[in-house]
Amino acid sequence: MGGPVPVEIRLHRAEQALEVGWPDGTRHRLPAEYLRVESPSAEVQGHGPGQKTLVHGRRQVGILRLEPVGHYAIRVIFDDGHDTGIYAWDALRRLGEEQPERWAAYLAELAARGLSRDPLRRTPASGAPARP
């Protein structure tokens, strides 16, 4: 896997964001929610073209920890239990560079499907799902 290797990866827990610095001085601040919905895992991306799953209800998702994967990637462990996304350096760079377009497309797809970034919650009286 080619491409530049980050010179810095910093987890900002309070802001739930990952900051990545690159050798050319470029820096990307990637929110946990963005990383979660764009996870490179098969669970999210599927096993072929056109199989991507639209992940929703993750506005509050956090990052528990980061784990190195060899010298080419990191695994991001999210607090919703998702831990199978391995972010290779080139994919992480692409997520940073394409963030505005990808995020706008994600929000448009949520709206088109009538879905929300907010997690479903159960109402105590009925047990039925409700939006906060």
Largest sheet: 3 strands, antiparallel
Total count of helical runs of at least 4 residues = 4
Helix content: 25-40%
Radius of gyration: 16 Å
Give the CA-based shape. globular
Q: Which runs of at least 5 residues are low in confidence (pLDDT < 50)? A: none
Query: Which class of secondary structure composition applies to the elements?
Result: alpha+beta
Tell me what portion of residues adopts beta-strand conformation.
Answer: 25-35%
Distance between the termini: 42 Å
In order across it, which strands form the biggest sheet?
1-2-3
Strand tally, please?
Answer: 8
Order of SSEs? EEEHHEEEHHEE
* Mean pLDDT over the residues: 88
Verbal overview:
The chain is an alpha+beta fold. Helices cover 26% and strands 27% of the residues. The strands form three sheets. Strands 1-2-3 form a three-stranded antiparallel sheet. Strand 7 and strand 8 form a beta hairpin. It is globular and about 40 Å long. The relative contact order is 0.18. The mean pLDDT is 88.
